[in-house]
Amino acid sequence: MQYRFGDKFKIFPALILIVLLAIPSLALAGHGDAKPVKKGILLAAFGSSMDEAQITFENIDKAVKKAFPDVPVRWAFSSAIIRNILAKNGRIVDSPVTAMSKMMDEGFTHVAVQSLHTIPGEEYSGIVETVKKFEGMPKGMTKVTVGKPLLFSDTDMRRTVKAIIANIPKDRKSKDAVVLMGHGTPHFANIFYPASQYYFAQADSKIFVGTVEGSPTLDDVKAMLAKSKSKKVYLMPYMSVAGDHARNDMAGDESDSWKSVLTKAGYKCVPVLKGSAEFPQVVDIWVDHLKVAFKHLGNN
Ligand code: CO
Fold first, then answer.
1. Is 183 a catalytic residue?
2. Can you list the pairs that 254-262 forms with residues at least 24 positions away whose Cβ atoms lie under 8 Å?
3. What is the pLDDT of residue 11?
4. Which residues does residue 258 pair with via DSSP β-bridges, in sequence order?
5. N or C end of the chain: which has fewer CB within 10 A?
6. Which residue in 128, 108, 131 sits closest to 38, CA to CA?
7. What is the pLDDT of residue 299?
8. Of 144, 168, 177, whose CA–CA distance to 297 is shortest?
C-alpha cells in the first residue's frame, strides 16, 4: 500500500520530460533567450564594379529566389577594391564578414553560403574560412554551410562544358575555334583550367582554355590554335562576369590584349562579352550546389 503514492509521483517527471522534448527550442534555451530556427542564404561573389556586370548578379539573385521562395537571400562581395569603388558611387555591398554579422544580429541561426566563384581557389577558401567562424558563436549561428564553386567535381566539369558550349554564339561554324579566358591563379586550384581543357577537348576539339594569371597561358593557347588550323576565333570569358579582364585583357584595343595578339597572329577575332553567370545552365549548377549546402543545414 505505501508504495502506491510513490508510483503516482513518478509519472510527473516523465510528463515534464515529454513536454520538454516536444518544445526543444525552449528546453535548450537559458535565461529566457529562446532562439527559433531562422534559415538564410548568403551569396558571395568576388564582385564587379562594372554597370554591365550587374545583370549577372540580378540573374543569379532571381534564380536563387525562385529555387528558395521562402528563404531570405543576402549578398556579399569579397573584393575590398570593388566594394570601395561601388561605395564611391553610392552603392554599398557588404563584405562576407559584415553580411554574416548582420545576419547574426537579425537572428539567423542557419546560413547556407553559396560561393559564386569558378574554382575552389584562394577566394573560395577565404569565404569558407571566414563564414565558418560564425558557426557556434555564443548567441550566434548554430550552423553555417558553404556551397561548392562552379567547378568542383567530375559532374560539375561535364555540366559546365555542356552549359558553355550551349551558349557559344550560334553563327560559330565547327571549323572556327573558341578561346575561353579563365582567370588563373598561383593557388593549386589553377589545375581546374588545364582540367577544363581536357573536358572541353572531349566535347569539341576546337575549344581552348587559357588564363590571364595562371596556366595555360596565351602562348599555350596560340600553340593549340596553330595546330587547329582555324582562321576565326571566338573569344569568351571563362569567368562568371564579363568585367575588367574580359573587356580589357581579352577584348580591349591595347596591343597586349588577347584580341590584339591573336589578330596580329592572323586570326579573325570575335569577342563575346558575356560572363558565364549570364548563362542559365551555368547558374543552375551554382543553384544545385546551394541546394546541397542548404540541405546540410539540417532541421535544428
Ligand atoms: Co583579376
1. yes
2. 258/179, 258/181, 258/210, 258/218, 258/221, 259/235, 261/218, 261/222, 262/179, 262/222, 262/225, 262/233, 262/235
3. 53
4. none
5. N
6. 108
7. 76
8. 144
Q: How far apart are CA 45 and CA 286, in angstroms?
A: 12
- List of the chain residues with pLDDT < 70: 1-34, 300
Q: What dihedral angle (degrees, nearest 10) is formed by the CA atoms of 264, 165, 168, 216? A: -20
C-alpha 243 to ligand 1 mean position (Å)? 9
Strand blocks (E) in 158-227:
177-182, 207-211
Distance 247 CA to ligand 1 centre (A): 12
CA of 213 to the centre of ligand 1 (A): 8
* 83 Cα to the center of ligand 1, angstroms: 15
Residue that the C-alpha cell 542559365 belongs to: 280
C-alpha cell at 136: 557556434
Options 117, 183, 245, 289, the catalytic residue: 183
The values of phi and psi at residue 135, to 5°, are: -80, 125
Cis peptide before 13 (omega within 30 of 0): no
Q: For position 111, what pLDDT does the model report?
A: 98
Strand 110-115: give its sheet, edge to edge.
Answer: 73-77, 39-45, 110-115, 143-147
pLDDT at site 35: 80
Size (the chain), residues? 300
Q: Which domains does the chain have, with CATH numbers?
A: 39-151+281-295 (3.40.50.1400), 168-273 (3.40.50.1400)
